[in-house]
């Protein structure tokens, strides 16, 4: 069935592992992810961004996820990723989503609280859980000074106050990750000290790590080998994801790694078989690449295998 993440996060928190939250945009992406979770007997979060809703249309994505639930028998959370206002959250709640993110991170503290509270009230009345965000995710380069970093990264005391005042179910934090394929210019670095402090002040609040793709070098290399041009792409090393999962991070958001896996596989088909033009012949391998990559993550990085 479609479920909320409440029990998933409790178990993950206690077990020191994390649940993968994968962005979905079409059928092949959904199938690849769900196949992997099924083989690994893993809980699963499928998340839909505003851009995904615009690309595929809301009803297609919802029906595809419903089909995945029915076909796989898995417990799946259907989550809105980065809802920017009350209206989109309400729309998704009314549509049957079991979880929504209200991303008020760009607003001042008090406005973020007010907006989040409004969504929490509406969602909880309908049995839906809410993720909010405090701190700014934008890429932090090595040369930013401490006060700039303090302004962008999640402040632990504010985080405690935020969760207490909003009643939110989980909190996305900023500790040095960023969205996309170019997360670090030099050595990858996350502020684990800050994460530990947040976890101490907020015991039992599930934390969420956005921008958590590893940007797997094998897929970057394949893309570049088969005609792509994505030099210098770098993500969060797998060990850092494991460490975060030990420190209260229960939800790990992954989109870029899906994009890279699928694109690498499709590029390879195009270069090796220039006469091929049946979409199934390249979308199929794209789907397989996603499945294998997700299975690796679930089993070797997130640690959510056999946790149903
Ligand atoms: O957080 C961003 C996710 O990767 C979703 O990206 O807004 O292009 O669908 P998108
Ligand atoms: P990545 O770009 O690292 O995959 O992050 C995805 C994300 O945070 C979606 O909300
Ligand atoms: Zn995100």
Verbal overview:
The protein is of the alpha/beta class and 308 residues long. It has one domain (6-302): Alpha-Beta Barrel (TIM Barrel). 52% of the residues lie in helices and 13% in strands. The protein has helices at 6-15, 27-40, 50-56, 58-72, 86-94, 109-125, 146-152, 156-166, 192-201, 217-225, 238-246, 256-272, 279-302, and strands at 19-23, 44-48, 76-83, 99-102, 129-134, 170-173, 207-209, 249-254. Strand 3 (76-83), helix 5 and strand 4 (99-102) form a beta-alpha-beta unit. Helix 2 (27-40) runs parallel beside helix 4 (58-72), helix 5 (86-94) runs parallel beside helix 6 and helix 6 (109-125) packs parallel to helix 8 (156-166). The model has no long low-confidence stretch (mean pLDDT 96). Residues 23, 81-82, 179-180, 210-213, 253-257 line the site of 1,3-dihydroxyacetonephosphate (13P). Zn(2+) 1 binds at residues 82, 179, 210.
Topology:
Blueprint: H1 6-15, E1 19-23, H2 27-40, E2 44-48, H3 50-56, H4 58-72, E3 76-83, H5 86-94, E4 99-102, H6 109-125, E5 129-134, H7 146-152, H8 156-166, E6 170-173, H9 192-201, E7 207-209, H10 217-225, H11 238-246, E8 249-254, H12 256-272, H13 279-302
Parallel strand pairs: 1-2, 1-8, 2-3, 3-4, 4-5, 5-6, 6-7, 7-8
Helix pairs in contact: 2-4, 2-13, 3-4, 5-6, 6-8, 8-9, 10-12, 12-13
The structure holds glyceraldehyde-3-phosphate (G3H), 1,3-dihydroxyacetonephosphate (13P) and zinc ion.
């Amino acid at each position: 069935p479609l479920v909320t993440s409440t029990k998933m996060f409790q178990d993950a928190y206690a077990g020191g592992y994390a649940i993968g939250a994968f962005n979905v945009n079409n059928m092949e992406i959904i199938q690849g992810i769900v196949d992997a979770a099924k083989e690994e007997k893993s809980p699963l979060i499928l998340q839909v961004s505003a851009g995904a809703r615009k690309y595929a249309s809301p009803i297609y994505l919802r029906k595809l996820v419903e089909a995945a639930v029915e076909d796989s028998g898995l417990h799946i959370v259907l989550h809105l990723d980065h809802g920017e206002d009350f209206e989109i959250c309400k729309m998704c709640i009314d549509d049957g989503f079991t979880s929504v993110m209200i991303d008020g991170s760009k607003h001042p503290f008090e406005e973020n609280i007010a907006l989040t509270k409004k969504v929490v009230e509406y969602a909880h009345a309908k049995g839906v859980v809410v993720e909010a965000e405090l701190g700014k995710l934008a890429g932090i380069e090595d040369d930013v000074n401490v006060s700039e970093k303090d302004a962008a990264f999640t402040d632990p005391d504010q985080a405690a106050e935020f969760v207490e005042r909003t009643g939110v179910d989980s909190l996305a934090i900023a500790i040095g990750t960023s969205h996309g394929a170019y997360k670090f210019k030099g050595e990858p670095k996350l502020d684990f000290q800050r994460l530990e402090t947040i976890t101490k002040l907020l015991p039992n609040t599930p934390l969420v790590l956005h921008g958590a793709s590893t940007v797997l070098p094998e897929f970057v290399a394949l893309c570049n080998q088969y005609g792509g041009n994505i030099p210098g792409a770098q993500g969060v090393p797998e060990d850092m994801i494991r460490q975060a999962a030990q420190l209260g991070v229960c939800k790990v958001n992954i989109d870029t790694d899906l994009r890279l896996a699928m694109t690498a596989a499709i590029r390879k088909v195009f270069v090796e078989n220039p006469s091929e033009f049946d979409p199934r012949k390249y979308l199929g391998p794209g789907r397989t690449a996603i499945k294998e990559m997700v299975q690796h993550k679930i089993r070797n990085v997130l640690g959510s295998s056999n946790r149903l």
